[in-house]
Design brief:
Elements (H helix, E strand, L loop, with lengths): L1 H11 L20 H6 L7 E2 L3 E2 L2 E2 L5 H8 L3 E9 L2 E8 L8 E4 L11 E4 L20 H8 L4 E3 L9 E3 L10 E6 L15 E3 L3 H5 L3 E7 L6 H5 L1 E5 L5 E6 L2 E6 L2 E12 L16 E6 L4 E9 L3 E6 L7 E6 L1
Antiparallel strand pairs: 1-2, 2-3, 4-5, 5-6, 6-7, 7-12, 8-9, 8-11, 10-12, 13-14, 13-20, 14-15, 15-16, 16-17, 17-18, 18-19, 19-20
């Protein structure tokens, strides 16, 4: 499970296999507006942080995508890395050039894809951003789009070639993750191989002539459900602790289990349980489901050290917890 979280973290930063072939410059593919008007499913525009074609990165469920793309979408196995496969959705399966892989992490929101990945074929795809970010671009071209050099992992291993830090450039904070591969006809020095941190403008990196082999997009807004995982102790009552694991929460008093309940993410607080006071709150909620009822909780803070939420409709103020090992 820890490996899965690492894989998804790399994807979400901003994370199927490598596509071989000679390096060459890539230009933004020309969009066939006539085809798009005739069939909106053929819109290959990417707006980072917003949408990939008809897929809303902020609020598209699996059912939404299957309905939007119809016969061009199907449930299929999606590779997560390190030999892990899970069910997801594949678009344009019969067209490798424009094939898209989507995955929803069951521990996160079912209304938001964890990642949307594109690999192209022969270093080509019709998918691109308005600025021209696409498969096959050279590392120099991506550096120009970013406005400065960035960091990436060394080549030739599970996370080889993934961008690890945009260094405050134009591509940072937009839910864009890229993977580079060295040109098989270029010289790849030993120093740029393996689990090492590299700068995109390093001479040895440029000598390898890396090109974009993978585009991955996600909602750049942090998912509170991922931050909520783990153990928490009340800041006002040290005997009260909760442990959130996946889609369930366990409540403890003096280290004795009181009860366990299923929980479900509710971005936007749209559940009926959130409207018990007449008006649903605005923000991110999670629903705690009991045997006979459901409690809506509005998340106020969820980070590495603090969890604070308010039980909608319940008496008293918000509950504040600090993380415990």
């Amino acid at each position: 499970m820890k490996n899965l979280f690492l894989i998804l973290a790399l994807l979400a930063y901003g994370l199927y296999s490598c596509q071989p072939g000679p390096a060459q410059g890539a230009e933004a593919p020309a969009q066939d507006t006539t085809a798009t008007e005739a069939d909106p499913r053929l819109d290959f525009t990417i707006l980072p942080g917003e949408r990939v074609g008809l897929v809303d990165l902020r609020s598209a469920s699996e059912a939404d995508v299957l309905q939007a793309y119809g016969s061009l979408a199907q449930k299929d196995s999606v590779y997560l890395g390190e030999g892990l496969f899970e069910q997801g959705v594949v678009l344009f399966k019969e067209n490798p050039k424009n094939r898209v892989y989507l995955y929803w992490d069951p521990l996160m929101s079912p209304r938001q894809p964890s990642f949307v990945s594109i690999y192209g074929e022969g270093r080509q795809t019709d998918w691109s951003t308005p600025e021209g970010l696409t498969i096959g671009m050279s590392i120099e071209q991506v550096e120009q789009l970013n406005g400065r050099a960035f960091e990436l992992y060394g080549f030739g291993w599970d996370y080889g070639g993934y961008v690890s830090n945009w260094n405050g450039g134009s591509l940072e904070g937009k839910g864009i993750s890229l993977r580079f591969e060295p040109n098989e006809d270029a010289t790849t020095a030993v120093e740029v191989l393996g689990d090492v941190a590299l700068s995109s403008d390093a001479p040895a990196v440029r000598q390898a002539q890396p090109f974009v082999s993978e585009l991955t997009f996600s909602d750049p807004t942090p998912d509170p459900m991922s931050m909520m995982q783990g153990g928490w102790r009340s800041t006002t009552d040290e005997s009260y602790e909760i442990i959130i694991e996946g889609n369930q929460v366990s409540h403890f008093s003096d280290q004795r289990l009181m009860y366990t309940a299923a929980i479900e993410a509710d971005p936007g607080c749209t559940s009926e349980a959130c409207a018990v006071t007449g008006t649903a709150p605005e923000g991110f909620c999670f629903i705690e489901k009991g045997e006979f009822d459901a409690q809506c909780n509005l998340v106020i803070t969820a980070n590495e050290t603090t969890l604070e939420y308010t039980a909608i409709g319940a008496a008293g103020g918000s509950l504040v917890f600090e993380r415990v090992d």
